[in-house]
């Protein structure tokens, strides 16, 4: 905890900046760093809360004040504070970045009470793909998109700029991939049922069964754990997840960017896996295939012609993602089973291989759009220094 003297010193540093201004205002470098490192803290808190949240909901009956929700709320509170600071002072953002952050934060804050009402009216929300949950993801999507733009446009060149931009893209990937965790947890929870084991508490199973008007049997468990079509997981992962990696590679501008962003997210999931699994929470399959696909995105960017690499990249990255999912199912299932003392577990959610065509078409459209939009951007080039502005004078 900071001493009163240090808090007084921090307030003396910050107060001169608390003046009304328009977005796009020249921002002193030290203030710029404080604002965006604040965003790193806010998004980290939200990440830790959301990572715990899915596992929690596969074990316990929903509670508005569950620890994962409180942790996520702490990150949201800091994000709201930063949004207000950007909006009032105009520091650290241009007009587009500010609009994205404000709209994203606003959508998220509207979605929170709607989600609470949804749970009050409909009881257990059995899927991550519900409308109120999707609003939460959409709000966070725009919020992080604004943060990425603000940092991309204003950070000075150097290693810190690249690393922090990659970190923001990893948070972006986590939010985009988040609903897929329902199937990643669900496939192992259904496998546990088949092994005559359950991860969920009896009160949660009974609540879900009552809501489906069924006894607690395998059909009920399948409806609880895997309530969406098998094609949704791979198609969404390829179209949405790989689009984030394409954009990351395009804006970071370095070979390996897509791979490292994917590896950062998957690495985090891998680290928390034992922390959750061996403390009594349900395990999940892990999306290792994203790292393989990210590597192929990086390789595709060795082709200089944008629309040619979009076509070639779509083909190889989609094939790699589906192929890696097949291998992951075969290779990781026995590993998960050995760790849990169970047999026959799948290493990934069920895969509808025929959906690869639709996934490829969707990714191609998204990739071409990214190439077109980023090719026309008027953003400051990577090697151009951001403006250096002196701190305002104190009176």
TrEMBL record:
It comes from the Bacteria. Keywords: Membrane, Transmembrane, Transmembrane helix. The chain crosses the membrane at residues 36-58, 70-88, 100-118, 134-152, 231-248, 255-273, 285-303, 310-331, 351-370. This is DUF2029 domain-containing protein. It comes from Nonomuraea salmonea.
């Amino acid at each position: 905890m900071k001493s009163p003297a240090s808090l007084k010193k921090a307030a003396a540093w910050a107060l001169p900046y608390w003046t009304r201004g328009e977005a796009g205002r020249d921002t002193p470098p030290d203030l710029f760093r404080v604002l965006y490192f604040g965003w790193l803290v806010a998004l980290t808190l939200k990440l830790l809360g959301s990572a715990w949240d899915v596992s929690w909901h596969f074990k316990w009956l929903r509670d508005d004040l569950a620890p994962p929700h409180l942790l996520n709320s702490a990150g949201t509170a800091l994000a709201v504070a930063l949004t207000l600071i950007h909006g009032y002072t105009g520091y650290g953002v241009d007009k587009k970045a500010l609009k994205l952050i404000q709209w994203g934060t606003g959508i998220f804050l509207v979605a929170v009470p709607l989600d609470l009402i949804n749970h009050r009216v409909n009881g257990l929300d059995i899927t991550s793909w519900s409308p109120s949950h999707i609003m939460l993801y959409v709000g966070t999507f725009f919020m992080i998109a604004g943060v990425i733009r603000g940092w991309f446009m204003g950070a000075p060149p150097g290693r810190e700029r690249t690393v922090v931009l990659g970190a923001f893209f990893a948070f972006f990937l986590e939010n985009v991939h988040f609903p897929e965790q329902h199937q990643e947890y669900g496939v192992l929870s259904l496998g546990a049922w088949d092994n005559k084991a359950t991860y969920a508490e009896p009160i949660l199973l009974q609540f879900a069964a009552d809501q489906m008007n069924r006894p607690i049997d395998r059909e009920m468990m399948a409806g609880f754990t895997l309530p969406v079509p098998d094609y949704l997981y791979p198609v969404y992962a390829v179209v949405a997840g790989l689009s984030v990696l394409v954009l990351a590679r395009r804006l970071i501008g370095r070979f390996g960017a897509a791979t490292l962003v994917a590896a950062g997210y998957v690495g985090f999931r891998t680290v928390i896996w034992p922390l959750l699994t061996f403390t009594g929470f349900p395990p999940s399959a892990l999306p290792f295939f994203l790292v393989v696909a990210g590597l192929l995105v990086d390789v595709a960017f060795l082709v200089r012609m944008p629309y040619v690499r979009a076509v070639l990249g779509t083909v190889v990255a989609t094939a790699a993602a589906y192929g890696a999912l097949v291998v992951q199912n075969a290779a990781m299932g026995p590993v998960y089973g050995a760790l849990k003392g169970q047999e026959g577990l799948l290493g990934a959610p069920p895969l509808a291989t025929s959906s690869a065509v639709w996934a490829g078409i969707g990714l191609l459209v998204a990739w071409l759009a990214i190439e077109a939009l980023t090719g026309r951007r008027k953003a400051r080039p990577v090697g151009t220094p951001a403006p250096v502005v002196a701190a305002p004078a104190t009176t």
